[in-house]
Design brief:
The first copy, chain A, is about 25% helix and about 25% strand.
Chain lengths: ~550, ~550
């Protein structure tokens, strides 16, 4: 069996290695356009910030090493430009010699990945303008930054890579501005979480301009700034992080089925619409495990799982890929942010009776050094109590919370399945009531009417208009609010009428919740707790982690 | 409704607080023997090590503060000595005044917890002998240690608390020996994991003597040593951490149903065998969620969940507690160790067709600073592919791995449910192939016959006898083994016959696995990979975390 794999980063090398493991007799050849294979694409921003000091850290395998480890052949510098599905041949140009080459296959795997989108606008070809997609991009950027003693950078695009590059440039001492056309950065998060992250970035000295259109790059011999619809931003370095586009243009003539965004349509066995042509990685659209709908998940983690399934399918094993939950995580200055499952908006669009709750808590025993806050937003279906999504942001271990959430959602868990979860507790690792269990308790309280609360989004949308604000903190900080201390509340409160619409606010909503229950007992009918007050005034940011 | 709660640490205070939240009109009174309520029992060892500097860090709430927050009354220093179930009265002695007091109830909650077991042997009452159960124990120990300038300590009992105290004493500069009657410390782990932890402790300067019987404590005016069946161990400080016993002796006359270990038998609504008497926390035996069998889980995390269920039940809400998985975690010097679900032994006893696999991997991208190793042992049923248990040890984030495992086991996950899990990946948080997914792949490979391997336990039991040992590392370290380099293996290997019994060994079993596949392709019939070689020579201990 002759397997030809076009593209040799994550999905391609994984597929090749696994095929050779299953069937040593298979003749596996990877041809790839670039000169590097199997590189750490997700690590590139950290090379820019010198977190990864040496470029050797970015390259997982060389072609020679890979051949030795796996037995699969690799030819670099081969730019595939045509696939003849009937003749089962792929045509490629040897990038170094210019020669045209033809490769036969019995099975062909498209794992050509995706490339950075470079807009057609003046200045994009100037020195000082960089992408962030291959090791060379990162190496070139760091070199340029050092050699030119760059002071100012603009990162165009506030996705994960953009924000990672921005903070690594900031770490290197540059003045950094992130611009994005959308009204928020990291738009795969719910808007209030994105907005929170924007405030964190700003507080850490990274400027963020949303709803901002890049018009051109200023400069004659080199980049000197970015012209936007809001004015000129000076910049010695411009990083284009505007998204990626699947490298599938060379397949257009084949009639292969593609999604509107140019990714390949595949089934759950990674088969394309053309017989004996398979695909995996950033160039395919897989599907969402929860919704069953197509979803593009250009992630190293998915690429590896897809490659593993694909290799088995090619070797005749009946494997199916279940798809993604849209799980993602990003390290920001001071906090981490992560998500899994449906967003609030997506859940509503799917017709669920959506309820959300945001809970702020510690990730470890409060008295244990290094404990830090996490804010967990759960999205659930009010009817079935099914957990639909989780988003988390905080200085603490959001990765753990999201991995629990992803596992639970994968298994179709209801909130009741999770309220008694026996998770690992000791003071250096968690709180006696685990943060995820606490978050589940809170949303169950809300569903059951025990807690009546307002989400940050509702608050931001003006839902608190007409409410009297009560500051439930022991030491009040909210100007103009009535200060009510829970432990001194043993009857009706002076200044509050039983029918008043009252918004109860404190740092983590815990005291506010307790006060709500007490006020209810004393006949107050319209109290509402504000969830996650930290989303508005940052009062809970953990000083310890700064 | 008059609710009397006997005992005010975790379960008692949780129950009281939650009842008052649901029903402010309930008359809730906690009586408790000690002078502290709601303290951080799990934090005590860290006070000894000055990780928690101030004793105020140990006390979560005072009675006054608690009353203010919850509305529940607390009387400290009340030693309940009798319960009259017919008259619905509890008799207690006022510890301070000596007065006998009587308390009525409509509903009574037993949350008296458990006390340290103090063996009847000479010397246990000497100064310098301590327990580790209450804040006073920790405060007294630290004070004594500092005041007497103690140099040597013996910790009797190698459970979690014993090991935590040992390393905190070591941190304070003492020479520390842990002794245990059993043949291993932390016996809730599989033996090879316990043994590994023992080696880690020893390497970090903590002596460990297992299968050692304490006979008496030596000394006249103060503790000077521990006499054991293996000789005298000098000690200025002796910590008794021999386990705990439920504080239920005062209920013996009531005829209340108890387990053989003196804990109270309860149903999943926390009801005891006596009408209107409930119980929660360390003094009850709950049940195992997987097996349905009774299981004692004296943990702060379970106590809180039990209290939450119990409060709702008392308030007329139909709630049931699902029980525990035996999840537990402990921080050791250099590594962390955690477990959930069935042990290998328990799984076998339940009749499962047990398969286990140990996988050693990084917890973060290998090139990202701070990445550290984790060894994950999965236990599964060969027939149904159901995940039954997970144990993990390593310098990396074992808490995350175990929490994923606990969630999966709770939901009844099969390995196939987990092999495509979309968990959070970015270099600062995880590896592209998540450690848990990798561990699942490995055990599936083993079940499917793709990987033929030997577990550390099998190796320790002598299963490798008669095998030729092949060192598959790139740089060989195993004396007397044949060195075989994967990338140079393209045919039969000199020195190995096709029928030889061959044990393939490398640090993390990855190269050994790849070599096995290659040797198979070249006709070798009896190769076996050794899982987790790090369990024998510690080659993979992460230098970065030291």
């Amino acid at each position: 069996m002759k397997v030809l794999i076009i593209g040799g980063v994550a999905a391609g090398t994984k597929t090749a290695a696994k095929i050779k493991r299953i069937n040593r007799d298979a003749d596996v050849l990877i041809i790839t356009k670039g000169m590097d294979i199997s590189y750490a694409g997700c690590g590139l921003p950290y090379y820019v910030g010198n977190v990864i000091a040496d470029k050797s850290g970015l390259i997982v395998n060389t072609p020679e090493k890979f051949k030795g480890l796996t037995g699969a052949d690799v030819l670099v510098g081969r730019d595939a430009y045509k696939l003849d599905a009937k003749a089962k041949k792929v045509y490629a140009k040897n990038v170094n010699t210019g020669a045209e080459e033809v490769y036969d296959y019995d099975k062909c795997v498209i794992s050509t990945g995706a490339s950075s989108i470079v807009p057609k606008m003046p200045g994009v070809q100037l020195p000082g303008v960089f992408k962030m997609r291959t090791p060379d991009d990162a190496i070139d950027l760091r070199e340029y930054m050092v050699n030119t003693n760059a002071k100012k950078a603009v990162v165009a695009g506030g996705g994960f890579i953009g924000l990672e590059v921005a903070q690594n440039l900031k770490k290197q001492g540059l003045d950094v501005t992130v611009i994005d056309l959308a009204d928020h950065v990291i738009t795969n998060f719910d808007p209030e979480i994105s907005e929170y992250c924007e405030r964190v970035l700003k507080r850490n000295g990274i400027k963020v301009l949303v709803s901002t259109k890049m018009e051109s790059i200023a400069g004659t011999d080199k980049a000197e700034g970015v012209k936007t619809d809001k004015g000129l931003l000076e910049a010695d370095i411009v990083v284009l992080s505007l998204g990626i586009r699947a490298n599938t243009a060379f397949l257009k003539d084949t009639g292969i089925e593609m999604m509107p965004n140019g990714t390949l349509k595949i089934d759950d066995q990674m088969k394309t619409s053309i017989p004996d042509v398979y695909a995996a990685g950033d160039c395919v659209t897989t599907r969402n495990f929860q919704t069953g709908k197509p979803q593009w998940a250009p992630m190293g983690s998915a690429a590896n799982m897809e490659g593993r399934v694909l290799a088995q399918v090619i070797c005749g094993i009946d494997k199916h890929y279940k798809g993604v939950l849209g799980t993602a995580i990003v390290k920001l200055p001071e906090v981490n942010a992560a998500r899994t499952g449906l967003s609030e908006k997506a859940a509503k669009e799917m017709g669920y009776d959506v309820v959300t709750a945001l809970t702020v808590t510690d990730d470890k025993a409060h008295y244990y050094p290094g404990s830090a806050f996490v804010s967990i937003k759960l999205t659930a279906d009010r009817k079935t109590h099914k957990l639909l999504g989780m988003q988390a942001v905080g200085a603490g271990e959001v990765d753990k919370m999201i991995d629990i959430g992803a596992t639970a959602i994968s298994m179709g868990a209801t909130l009741e399945n999770l309220e008694d979860l026996d998770l690992a507790y000791a003071p250096p690792f968690s709180t006696a009531i685990h943060p995820v269990v606490l978050a589940v308790n809170v949303i169950l309280n809300k569903i059951n009417g025990v807690l009546v609360s307002m989400t940050p989004s509702e608050f931001l949308a003006g839902a608190a208009k007409g409410y009297k604000i009560v500051d439930a903190q022991n030491v009040p900080t909210i100007q103009g609010a009535l200060h009510v201390v829970l432990s001194e509340t043993n009857g009706p409160v002076e200044g509050l009428e039983k029918d008043d619409k009252i918004l109860l606010v404190c740092k983590r909503a815990r005291l506010a919740y307790l006060l709500q229950l007490r006020l209810k007992a004393f006949g107050y009918k319209n109290t509402v707790v504000l969830e996650g007050a930290s989303f508005f005034n940052d009062v809970v940011v953990d000083e310890k982690k700064k």
